[in-house]
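User: Can you recover a sequence for this backbone? Please restate the input before giving your answer.

Assistant: Of course. Working from this structure:
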């Protein structure tokens, strides 16, 4: 969010859309790669929808072409998109990977989460119930 706010203040909306679209397509391709890997490593698990492997492999070939073309034609935009993705790595390590956090850090995370939920009207805070009309 902070990187998006900085880009919105410094740049224009068109540039932000380019950054986000590169990130989206990168994530789509990684998802398809995950689908293929799971079909290969765990062929026996239940799948409610079965797709012929030719479809994801074909999609992945077109995806690779478009991604390589994007990297070639606009390397700065793609690089900034990658930097935006990488800003989530420290957040992951601080919030998820680090298991034995001090209580003050846990309280801070909980208060920020509660504040965000109240701000966005997403979830009722813990201990609170739905208000009746």
């Amino acid at each position: 969010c902070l990187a998006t706010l900085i880009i919105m203040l410094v740049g224009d909306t068109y540039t932000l859309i380019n950054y986000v679209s590169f990130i989206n397509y990168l994530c789509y391709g990684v998802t398809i790669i995950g689908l293929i890997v799971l079909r290969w490593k765990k062929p026996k698990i239940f799948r409610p929808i079965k797709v012929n492997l030719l479809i994801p492999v074909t999609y992945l070939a077109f995806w690779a072409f478009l991604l390589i073309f994007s990297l070639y034609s606009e390397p700065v935009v793609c690089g900034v998109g990658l930097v935006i993705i990488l800003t989530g790595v420290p957040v992951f390590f601080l919030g998820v990977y680090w298991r034995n956090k001090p209580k003050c850090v846990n309280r801070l995370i909980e208060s920020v989460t509660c504040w965000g939920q109240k701000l966005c009207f997403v979830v009722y805070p813990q201990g609170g119930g739905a208000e009746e009309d």
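That completes the design. Helices lie at 2-10, 13-41, 54-73, 75-86, 88-97, 103-120.
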